[in-house]
Design brief:
Layout (H helix, E strand, L loop, with lengths): L7 H36 L3 H17 L3 H17 L3 H18 L2 H17 L3 H17 L3 H6 L2 H4 L5 H16 L1
Helix pairs in contact: 1-2, 1-3, 2-3, 3-4, 3-5, 4-5, 5-6
């Protein structure tokens, strides 16, 4: 419209502003792509590559002061740590993510982070703390009327994906039974 009305100065300012906005969005897009690549690597069990990608995404989000994105990266790094039998590191990362999600006011991701942290504490053998966190997540899911979340907030469903330590323990129990 500005070009059609021959208001070239306004048109130029509008295009320069559009360019600035596009350039400002680019780092966020790049950080998001890094996050999703790290997520895919986690699902493919490429843990070292996933950790490296999550570190890069975290650095990018933190550089933009994008706290939510940084918390998602910490949550992802917590998932990597739990899958690689590093429950203490997982608990620390997930606690940091949980605090950020709580301050962002997103109860859905807060409930998910509570479940993740409960998993880490259960792996650490801190069952009382794990149960407290699980119940908190269950209360949030109930308040949100999130039936899928409420189902996932049960111990059976929450831990159906065994961590390496739990797999080793199950294998050891089986070996002992076979020796008898």
């Amino acid at each position: 419209i500005l070009l059609h009305n021959e208001d070239l100065d306004s048109a130029r300012r509008s295009f320069l502003l559009a360019r600035e906005l596009a350039q400002a969005e680019q780092p966020l897009r790049d950080a998001s792509v890094l996050y999703w690549l790290a997520y895919v690597d986690l699902e493919a069990a490429n843990y070292e590559q996933s950790r490296h990608g999550a570190d890069n995404a975290l650095e990018a989000f933190a550089g933009m002061r994008h706290y939510y994105g940084a918390a998602r990266c910490r949550q992802l790094m917590g998932h990597i740590a739990i899958r690689t039998d590093r429950a203490e590191e997982s608990a620390q990362l997930l606690q940091e993510a949980l605090e950020t999600f709580h301050s962002c006011g997103d109860p859905v991701v807060e409930a998910e982070a509570l479940l993740d942290l409960a998993h880490a504490y259960r792996e650490l053998g801190q069952r009382d703390q794990a149960e407290r966190l699980r119940r908190s997540a269950q209360h949030l899911f109930t308040a949100l009327n999130d039936e899928d979340g409420m189902r996932r907030a049960t111990w059976d469903d929450l831990y159906e994906q065994a961590t390496p330590r739990r797999i080793r323990e199950a294998m050891q129990r089986t070996a002992v039974k076979q020796q008898r």
